[in-house]
Amino acid sequence: MESNVNKEELVVNPEYEDQTPVKLDKKDLNKMAWRSLLLQASFNYERMQAGGWLYSMAPALEKIHKKKEDLSKSMKMHLEFFNTHPFLVTFVMGIVAAMEGNKNDTETIRGIKVATMGPLGGIGDALFWLTLLPISAGIGASLAIDGSVAGPIIFLIMFNIVHFGLRFGLMHYGYRTGVNSIGILKESTKLVSRAASILGLTVVGALIASYINLSLDVVIKAGEAEVNLQEGVLDQIMPKMLPLGYAFLMYYLLKKGWSPLALIGITVVFGVAGQYLGLF
């Protein structure tokens, strides 16, 4: 959803008794960033991340609103439905904290939250789940398969350097740029999301060829001639065709609503049965 809110349209909130602007410091922003780690601790299907959002915003709201009545009104507004990517949420928090500090209108703040939570959800999924996680887990798993204890350590370090760097960096960036960040986000959303998706899908394709080991051990006899079905036929058509087909089959079943646990069970049964029958 896009917001038509411009900086010039921002007005002071008439609902607040105290209209004095309040600035936050780095300590306040860092405290909010740490609290954002618990964004989904009270996740529910009615308001989703609203409880965690308010818990993260609480240090800023308590410093900004000195009067209990103002604080109460602000907290009630921040308990409304909210849902975005849990790693990039600090960007929205920074913007909203800047607007709360300026005592901007409640409807404007609500509009900013709604306008940003959707795009950030898409960018976060592409950036973290389709790009960073496959790359860092792939490198860590490669080391672990070779017996190196550094595998899981490398994975955790690589993933969390990016994760915490963005979590804290976006909090400060969002606060500094305030509502001007909305225009930047709207211009860059499609470009960033598309670039991250292309890179992530390329990595996933490489992982399919590297880590799904599926080949047939079947030999076809025609008179005195013998043809290995895998090497003589399938590999000639396209190498790693069976792993690719199996990955597409699992994706298709997932889209049809099959449980990941059920697909894991099917894969185990399929592998054991194939080995027992001499197919693999």
TrEMBL record:
Entry membrane topology: Multi-pass membrane protein
One Pfam assignment: EIID-AGA
Gene Ontology BP, a term: phosphoenolpyruvate-dependent sugar phosphotransferase system
Cellular localisation: Cell membrane
The keyword Manganese appears for this protein: no
Transmembrane segments: 81-99, 120-143, 149-170, 191-212, 261-279
Keywords: Cell membrane, Membrane, Phosphotransferase system, Sugar transport, Transmembrane, Transmembrane helix, Transport
PROSITE patterns registered for this protein in UniProt: PTS_EIID (PS51108)
Domain of life: Bacteria
GO cellular component terms listed in the entry, alphabetical order: plasma membrane
Protein name per its UniProtKB record: PTS system mannose/fructose/sorbose family transporter subunit IID
Organism: Senegalia massiliensis
